[in-house]
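S1.2 Input.
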Amino acid sequence: MDNLTHSLFALTLARTPLGRAGRGTTAALLLASNAPDIDIVSTAGGALKYLEWHRGPTHGPLGIVGLGLAVAAIVHFGRRYSGEHPTERDAPFVRLALVSIIGVILHVLMDLPTSYGTRPLSPFDWHWYAEDWLPIVDIYLLAILGAALVLGSRSPADAPSPAGLFLDARSRNAAIALTLMAANYGLRGATHTLALARVDEVFGALLPPRCEARIEQGLVDRWPREVNPEGATSASRCLVEVAAMPTFLSPFRWRLIAHLSDAYELRDVDLLDMGTPIGASSDEPMSRVSTRFPNRWTDTVRRASLARAAQVFLGFARFPAARYVVDAAGDTTVRWTDVRFVADAGPGRRAAAQSGLFSAVVRVGPNQQILDERLGAR
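S1.3 Output.
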């Protein structure tokens, strides 16, 4: 989840009873709700180092406790040495620590339902976990939290709630915002399930039989996985798993990913249109409107995957598609793309992988030596 959403959520929490633990709790919630993303300092070591540590220990058990205590200390001693005299309204350190730890936990929990995922058990377990319900930036969450903040700022802090159910109008607005947030999550979770239910209808004959070593999917997906195709032939082509990725604008439009033993098939579906899937006419074969990403693993590709850049990328990528070309000198250039982040999967247009963290390139010489490695497709 983006930092603006985390910040707005923290300010909303500050208008609930959690924010009434004493002076300093609002600052503690705001800092704690963004603290896990301090891993951005690893960019000082380059993009590869950042990807290696991204959403790692700062989002795990040690980070939750450590960052919570650090935030509490910053707020506590910051107030003490700010020149202001302590009052009975100031939250004690222990209370600030509890509020801060809660803020960090909620940051991690908000990252989990996104398609990007997080590593909540690192450094003890470096696997990524995700539920695929929300995009990284959810405009509806931003709208809900932003509106609640604006309306709350216009209400006097001591204005009584008309319904008499909350302490004041600001608490009422915060409760409404949290309820709408829960409804948004519920809608996303429900439509995610419905999108997965339409996989057979959308892909049709493109889907081969399930692999014997298929991935069993639960509520939370986990990767990287051990499943690694050994150069599947047409006779052994099979379906490893399917996934539904959320889109930016609509909770009813999803990108379906069929992970085959030798490729990935991508297709967009709109749940509000129960007829022909997006981009297809009623008499058009589905193979013409699906985007295909080959996933070709040869001995040279497996050798390239041992390069450090490839290892870090493959530890991050959920759906890494491998492609390669051999030049006149006999050098093989291997490119991996995480198909979660392709720019477009629509018919009649070539799907392109975003550069940066979402692809990796390794060049291997004729003698299987690593000649070059980097993140990014360029």
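S1.4 Remarks. The two ends are 27 Å apart (CA to CA).
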